[in-house]
């Protein structure tokens, strides 16, 4: 039906269900659709020319805004906790307190550095962060058809916004739920605002932001994109979902995690650095409108 779904990077446990959901979404039309996407390693690339690309946190960690001593500490945290994040041998219950520990320690270190708001644009520009190939088609299609895009990220909202602003795709139909920085009157980071969002509490984050989903209550069809099993709960605030299609990017520890991803996501994309599959599905849904 959609030729891109036959690509070797695409895995589906139940391709017939995928076809049926896409068909139902096409029949209902773009006015009934909303898109909910994770950011780091979902809208952004996991690697480029064989080198890992940074997350929102890493953009700051690797920047000139951070002292050498603090960089070492942040690197130690990454080396300790990232392997836990992607460890398929541990349960979510076991990982959750450790993820809270990671985010909390990292944010405390970033606050100690008194990062300046007016330098964020510069460090994003100087970073190796890259949106996935075809990102412009993705954002443009959604904008053209007035389909709301919620970017739901456990990264850093101020950095994320700067990435999409610099890419020229921070359109009015894009809304962001994330961890935002709180700056003092001199423009130096003094804290993070509100409840912490980490990879395993997106359900709570969604329920806290019920106003957003209330505004979109006529949009019962959801296209969800993520790279972590924690991303599956991003749509938990949506009002009476009719059809949901979950696309999961499996970037790392592919063999170990394939089975769990296939059970959880309708479409699993292995080592795919593009937005081609989401773009093809969106084109199909919006075609003829
Ligand atoms: N100190 C930290 C904490 C988390 N990360 C990574 O950020 C990712 C979360 O962002 P999403 O947009 O994917 O929700 C998460 O996968 C962590 O690996 C980090 O780099 N540094």
Give an overview of the whole structure:
By secondary structure, the protein is α/β, with parallel strands linked by helices. The protein has two domains: 201 residues, Rossmann fold (3-Layer(aba) Sandwich), CATH 3.40.50; 79 residues, Orthogonal Bundle (DNA polymerase, domain 1), CATH 1.10.150.340. It has eleven helices and eleven strands. Helix 3 runs antiparallel to helix 4. The two termini are 18 Å apart. The model has no long low-confidence stretch (mean pLDDT 97). The structure holds the ligand Nc1ccn([C@@H]2O[C@H](COP(=O)(O)O)[C@@H](O)[C@H]2O)c(=O)n1. The ligand Nc1ccn([C@@H]2O[C@H](COP(=O)(O)O)[C@@H](O)[C@H]2O)c(=O)n1 binds next to helix 2, helix 3, helix 4 and strand 5. It catalyses: CMP + H2O = cytidine + phosphate; N(7)-methyl-GMP + H2O = N(7)-methylguanosine + phosphate; a ribonucleoside 5'-phosphate + H2O = a ribonucleoside + phosphate. One of its GO terms (molecular function) is nucleotide binding.
């Amino acid at each position: 039906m959609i030729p891109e779904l036959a690509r070797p990077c695409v895995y589906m446990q139940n391709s017939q269900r995928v076809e049926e959901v896409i068909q139902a979404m096409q029949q209902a039309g773009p006015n009934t659709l909303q898109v909910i996407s994770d950011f780091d390693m979902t809208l952004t690339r996991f690697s480029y020319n064989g080198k890992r690309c940074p997350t929102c946190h890493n953009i700051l960690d690797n920047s000139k805004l951070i002292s050498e001593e603090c960089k070492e500490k942040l690197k130690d945290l990454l080396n300790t906790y990232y392997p836990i994040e992607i460890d398929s041998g541990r349960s979510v219950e076991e990982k959750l307190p450790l993820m809270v520990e990671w985010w909390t320690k990292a944010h405390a270190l970033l606050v100690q550095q008194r990062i300046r708001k007016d330098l964020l644009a510069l460090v994003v520009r100087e970073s190796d962060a890259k949106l996935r190939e075809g990102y412009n088609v993705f954002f443009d299609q959604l904008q053209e058809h007035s389909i709301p895009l919620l970017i739901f990220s456990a990264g850093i909202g101020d950095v994320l916004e700067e990435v999409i602003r610099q890419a020229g795709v921070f359109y009015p139909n894009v809304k962001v739920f994330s961890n935002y920085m709180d700056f003092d009157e001199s423009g130096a980071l003094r804290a993070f605002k509100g409840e912490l969002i980490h990879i395993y509490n997106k359900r709570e984050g969604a329920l806290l932001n019920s106003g957003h989903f209330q505004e979109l209550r006529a949009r019962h069809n959801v296209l969800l994109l993520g790279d972590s099993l924690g991303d599956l709960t991003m749509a938990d605030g949506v009002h009476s979902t009719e059809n949901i299609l979950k696309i999961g990017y499996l970037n790392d520890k592919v063999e170990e995690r394939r089975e769990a991803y296939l059970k959880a996501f309708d479409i699993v994309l292995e080592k795919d650095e593009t937005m081609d599959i989401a773009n093809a599905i969106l084109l199909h849904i919006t075609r003829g409108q």
